[in-house]
Structure prediction request, 192 residues.
Amino acid sequence: MTKIKVILGTTRQQRFGEQPARWIVERAKMKGLDVELLDLRDYPLPFFDEAMSPTMAAMKDAYPYPVSAKWTEKIGDADGFIMIAAEYNHGYTAVLKNAIDYVSREWNKKPVAFVGYGSAGGARAIEQLREVVIELQMTPIRASVHIVNPWNLLDEKGMIKTESFDAAGDAMLDQLAWWADALKTARNKDAK
Prediction:
């Protein structure tokens, strides 16, 4: 079964990101994917300032903190990712960048999709993330979900109405599943 990790890329109080994260997790389950939400609040990584790069640490199994070893193990277990990208000041969050930087080879040769939100639907944050993940030898897929002005999509209970982007989510998940399966097959061939 294809294992997808959804990374909630913000830790701030009263964050909106939980709503699109829960939404895409449920959509992925409907598609038959083995999906797990990774909330960065559960992985309180200090800002990266280690003596060795993540690549070197992985080679030596020398993770400086139990939380960084746990985080790296979760990333290594995945066949693909969905990053929930809040847009802060035309970019993505520092906590997401830090979490990305803690890992190296476990990201390699895996696809990643994005669900962005903000005044421009997270487009600028996603654009920057695409450049970063390519450096990690990941495959950013073309389809993404852009939730524009999400505060205008809330119902009377404060929950997001998803009808305007359900189809985009399904298209993104279809592409992600295809790439995850294709790259998993290729990684398995490399391992032989």
About this structure: The domain at 3-191 is CATH 3.40.50.360 (Rossmann fold).
